[in-house]
Design goal:
Layout lengths: L1 H15 L12 E8 L4 E9 H12 L12 H11 L3 E4 L6 E10 L2 E12 L7 E4 L1 H7 L4 E6 L6 E5 L6 E2 L7 H18 L1 H11 L5 H23 L7 H21 L7 H20 L8 H32 L7 H34 L1
Parallel strand pairs: 1-7
Antiparallel strand pairs: 1-2, 2-5, 3-6, 4-5, 6-9, 7-8
């Protein structure tokens, strides 16, 4: 029995995401779009999800309490300096290109992202040119990813860099479609496994499940609906503002957790799951679109990312459902109300916390729309 309660405690702690309750969506993804110019000059657009940049920037600015960020333009200038210290270009001998920040601020193509445009003059260097984002990836954390897109060159293409990767030789071939698809697949798995809000939503849905078939229907309904909106958003056909999506995801968690108190009908729960899946699909899309996938690679990247999400989702369900059935076997074959109510309450409280945390961004969005 001790082992049973240990597993139950682990389930509860995991599903409410106590380790990072406010950071349900922090994919730690940045992008570097490199455009070669004449005379060994390179223009590099470094992009971030705004929440990722805010987290990294706050950690840095905590050491510089003397800087007043309130005057116009100061914040943007400091963000530019932050990136300029962590992104560089050099030749094989280590001679650095002369870098300059040309623009820093909100990404004009995505209100949820920040963009820093840098210009590197490598005329004083010789031989191969290397793009070094190592320090930027270190600032992003151990799970940081930096998607590099090289344009206007014979070897134009994309590659994904990780914290342990060396500086990128811009003369070498970029990654093949198959290699990129594998990385997007892994990114999809990581997104669902570390997406505490998506996991809480799924956990709440299956807490009353005693058989596999209702769970299959729930997972299938969720897969179909979120695949639709994920595809629509990734292909720039239709999307929702990130702030609204995140708030609606939190609201969906509250609903399914509360539903466990008045209904044990798991067989028909796939219907609500199907509707809420549309909302969660936009949430999945935010992680994919932040990678800045080149237009020609959107379809394979989308497919690989979505398959990764599904693989991670199925793996999690296959872990959680046996734990619930194992507990049933040690409690006279009956799912105890206290177990479901207790876990549902914790999940519901996590949803309330996330909704409260995300509402200010929605109010800011509404205020901006009103002018």
């Amino acid at each position: 029995m001790t082992g049973m309660w240990t597993r139950l405690a682990a389930l509860i702690l995991f599903c409410v995401g106590l380790a990072a309750p406010a950071l349900a969506h922090t994919p730690d993804i940045s992008t570097g779009k490199i455009a070669p110019q004449a005379n060994r000059v390179y223009v590099v657009d470094v992009g971030f999800l705004a929440t990722d940049l805010e987290r990294m920037f706050q950690e840095t600015m905590a050491e510089r309490s003397d800087v007043d960020l309130s005057p116009p333009g100061v914040l943007e200038a400091e963000i530019g300096k932050f990136v300029a210290k962590r992104v560089a270009m050099r030749d094989e001998s280590g001679r650095a290109c002369v870098g300059k920040v040309e623009k820093s601020g909100e990404d004009p193509t995505n209100q949820d992202s920040a963009l820093v445009v840098m210009r590197f003059d490598c005329e004083g260097t010789t031989g191969k040119v290397f793009y070094d984002a190592t320090r930027l990836l270190q600032a992003q954390g151990p799970k940081g990813k930096h998607l590099v897109t090289l344009t206007g060159a014979e070897n134009a293409g994309e590659t994904m860099l990780y914290p342990t990767d060396p500086a990128l030789d811009l003369s070498r071939p970029m990654e093949t479609t198959g290699q990129l698809m594998w990385k997007f697949f892994k990114a999809g798995v990581e997104h669902i496994v570390t997406g505490y809000d998506h996991l809480c939503f799924l956990f709440a849905l299956i807490l009353w499940a005693h058989r596999i078939m209702p769970v299959v229907k729930i997972v299938t309904a969720f897969t179909v609906s979120h695949s639709i909106t994920l595809s629509l958003a990734a292909l720039n056909i239709f999307t929702l503002p990130s702030a609204l999506t995140e708030a609606l995801i939190a609201a969906s968690i509250i609903f399914v957790a509360a539903e466990n108190f008045w209904s044990k009908d798991v067989d028909s729960r796939w219907r609500n799951t199907f509707l809420f899946g549309f909302i969660h699909g936009f949430g999945f899309a935010s992680a994919l679109t932040e990678m800045g996938v080149a237009q020609g690679a959107v379809v394979p990247a989308l497919a690989a990312f979505n398959i990764g999400v599904e693989a991670g989702q199925i793996a999690i369900v296959m872990v959680v459902l046996p734990i619930l059935l194992y507990i049933d076997r040690h409690t006279d074959g009956k799912r105890h109300d206290k177990l479901v109510y207790g876990v549902s309450l914790l999940i519901g409280l996590a949803g309330v916390y996330w909704l409260w945390d995300r509402l200010p961004a929605v109010l800011e969005m509404v205020k901006a729309m009103r002018g």
